[in-house]
Design brief:
CATH topology of the largest domain: Cytidine Deaminase, domain 2
CATH superfamily of the largest domain: Cytidine Deaminase, domain 2
Structural class: alpha+beta
CATH architecture of the largest domain: 3-Layer(aba) Sandwich
Largest sheet: 5 strands, mixed
CATH class of the largest domain: Alpha Beta
Strand order of the largest sheet: 2-1-3-4-5
Strand content: 15-25%
Order of helices and strands: HHHHHHEEHEHEEH
Number of strands: 5
Helix content: 25-40%
Number of domains: 2
Number of helices: 9
Radius of gyration: 24 Å
Length: about 250
């Protein structure tokens, strides 16, 4: 029986070893790899006539950057030649791990005691998301994070965080205070009328159960708007908790 000739390697496998993305990473460390090379390692293989590295470069060109990939909606990944469900899942999982790596290690070690700490925490939590997410951090008296809850998500027009759910969770976690935060994907940092109304209603709902609303943050790509730092939180609290004048 005639022996079959060995198939010659193709694609990246045919490159010299010191030029292959995976071998370069293992020999020099991940910091020496380009974004396209890191993507090619996740993709593993390309498509006919296109290596994984070329496919990685095309993804970066399509989304603009790794950050653009992180903030893109799921629909943006549809119909990309060479990116099937398995590869898409691998890439999205890696991107989400990168986002979560920027968060504190654990709740029991996370303390939020200032507007600056809150802004840093929620910038990592909400920055770059394509849809509006509304989260609440529940804290004990020492400022330790008891729970970080996603209360609502959707588009700017559809997010309506339920006050009752926020208050109920505060009772369940035995929280002494809370910080609310949401992102504006549009990039507009100023609070809307609904943002202000929500904050006022939340202060009113939390006051009778002894839970203090410490902050409301609006996260954008350029930074955070702080209800506390601008004095708006105190102003709303005074409006909400002021005694109603007696009728004459």
């Amino acid at each position: 029986m005639a022996t079959q000739p060995k198939r010659k390697p193709s694609g990246i496998a045919a490159w010299p070893k010191d030029e292959r993305p995976r071998e370069r990473l293992l020999s020099r460390g991940p910091h020496a790899s380009t974004d396209a090379e890191l993507l090619s390692i996740l993709l593993r293989i390309g498509v006919q006539g296109k290596s994984a590295l070329e496919l990685g470069r095309e993804l970066l060109e399509r989304f603009g950057s790794v950050q653009g990939m992180m903030s893109a909606p799921l629909s943006a990944w549809d119909d990309i030649k060479g990116i099937g469900k398995a590869k898409r899942a691998q890439l999205l999982a890696a991107l989400e791990l990168g986002r979560r790596a920027a968060l504190p290690v654990g709740r029991d070690k996370t303390f939020i005691k200032s507007a600056q700490q809150a802004a840093k925490y929620f910038a990592a939590r909400l920055g770059g998301l394509p849809d509006e997410h509304f989260r609440v951090a529940y804290l004990n008296r020492q400022g330790r994070l008891l729970e970080d809850a996603l209360i609502a998500e959707g588009t700017v027009d559809t997010v309506h965080p339920p006050i009752r759910s926020i208050v109920a969770r505060a009772l369940q976690t035995n929280a002494s205070a809370l910080i609310v935060a949401h992102n504006h994907p549009s990039g507009a940092a100023e609070p809307s009328d609904s943002d202000t109304t929500l904050t006022r209603d939340l202060i009113a709902a939390c006051h009778p159960i002894g839970v203090k609303v410490l902050e409301h943050l609006i996260v954008t790509t350029d930074g955070c708007y702080s209800f506390a730092d601008t004095g708006l939180l105190d102003e709303l609290g005074m409006e909400t908790l002021a005694p109603i004048p007696a009728k004459r």
